[in-house]
Structures are given as structure tokens and as C-alpha cells.
Amino acid sequence: MAKSCKGLAMELVKCLSETDCVKLQKRPYKECAGEKVPNITSECVGLRETYFNCKRGQVDMRARIRGNKGY
Fold it and tell me: For 63, which of 51, 57, 59, 70 could close a Cys bridge (C-beta 3.0–4.6 Å)?
């Protein structure tokens, strides 16, 4: 279950690497992904939310029994 969110993480990094926040402003991925007012595309925002829900599902005891839905 530890690797169930790995695909989402890779997609998020790929999406963030194509944004102006990382390309032009030379800011780290973590800083760009964690902004309250995002300078990133709506696709990246959606991936960020999905990745967050995946990671939260890893610590939810009900989901641990059934297994995380994964990517």
C-alpha cells in the first residue's frame, strides 16, 4: 500500500515541471504545489487534491483494511 500513490506523485511532478512557477520563477515543486492562490493550471490543482486524498487514505484505518484505491 505504500506505493499506491506513486503514480499520482509522478503525474503531479510532471505537471508542475511544466508550469511557470517552476520554469520561470525557479521555485521548488513543494512551494509551488502548496500555494493558497495557485499559479498552476487547474489540471495540476486536481492532481494535487487527488494525491492528497490518496495519502490521507493510507492512514485511514477503514481504507487500510480494504486497501487504498490507488491510481
Answer: 57
Alpha helices in 1-71 (DSSP H): 6-17, 20-23, 29-33, 42-59, 61-66
- What are 6-35's pLDDT values in tens digits? 999 999 999 989 888 888 888 888 888 887
pTM, two decimals, is 0.76
Confirm if 8 and 68 have CB atoms less than 8 A apart.
no
Whole-Å CA distances, 24 to 6, 20, 49, 53: 26, 5, 24, 29
Question: Can you tell me the distance from the alpha carbon of 40 to that of 1, in angstroms, rounded to the nearest whole number?
Answer: 29
